[in-house]
Design goal:
The complex is a heterodimer of chains A (130) and B (69). Chain A has 130 residues and is an all-alpha fold. Chain A has 4 helices and no strands. In chain A, helix 1 runs antiparallel to helix 2 and helix 3 packs antiparallel against helix 4. The relative contact order of chain A is 0.11. With 69 residues, chain B is mainly alpha-helical. Chain B contains 6 helices and 2 strands, in the order βαααααβα. Chain B is globular and about 35 Å long.
Chain lengths: 130, 69
């Protein structure tokens, strides 16, 4: 087993632990449901990303400088996009155009971050360089 | 940026995939470097030069306009 694969195995184990902890906390009602569901979502996200990267890693070298550079830029653009989306939602909520709950805010952050990161990275990979 | 990677690959009968595997990068990275769309780091440029038994300045060229930009 190579070094990268064991790294992903650790991440999958961590994700699984978070999922189990989240389910346990929801079932036992130990803490607020929002916190338990966040832990559960975090665990599921870690498992999905680690599994996807582990599968991809079999064919792709991890130390490719172009991919590392473009991934960082992709994440940077994704962060800015999410920030803009959240700011827009905040002002819409502030002026009463829409009513958004905390849970919906979490969902917006969750979805925007993942989707925009994937879209930006895919776009930059095809572009060649930044 | 212009390169002589394609020419040297042909000389040593190497595919993009084979060169990429020797250096430890993706095939697409070699493709983008060859087509001048990606400027490699010094380290990667030296690795490519080493694999192609050449010198960095014999493989990578910038014209005057590109250098002044």
């Amino acid at each position: 087993m190579n070094k990268n694969n064991s790294k992903y195995n650790y991440l999958i184990a961590l994700g699984s632990s978070l999922v189990i902890a989240g389910i346990f906390m929801i079932a036992m009602q130990l803490i607020r449901e929002q916190v338990s569901s966040s832990i559960l979502s975090m665990g599921i996200t870690i498992i999905i990303i680690a599994t996807f990267r582990k599968m991809r890693n079999k064919a792709i070298p991890e130390n490719d400088e172009r991919i590392r550079k473009l991934s960082m830029y992709g994440l940077g653009y994704s962060w800015i996009t999410t920030f803009l989306v959240i700011t827009i939602f905040f002002w819409f909520d502030y002026f009463g155009f829409v009513k958004i709950t905390t849970q919906q805010y979490y969902s917006v952050i969750f979805v925007t971050m993942i989707i925009s990161a994937i879209v930006f990275q895919k776009f930059l990979y095809n572009k060649g360089d930044v | 940026m212009n390169t002589r990677i394609k020419e040297l690959r042909a000389k040593y009968n190497l595919t993009q995939e084979q060169l990429a595997n020797k250096i430890g990068v993706r095939r697409e990275t070699i493709l983008f470097i060859e087509s001048g769309k990606y400027n490699p780091s010094l380290k990667l440029a030296f690795q490519i030069a080493k694999e192609l038994n050449s010198k960095v300045d014999k493989i990578f060229f910038f014209n005057e306009e590109e250098l002044e930009r």
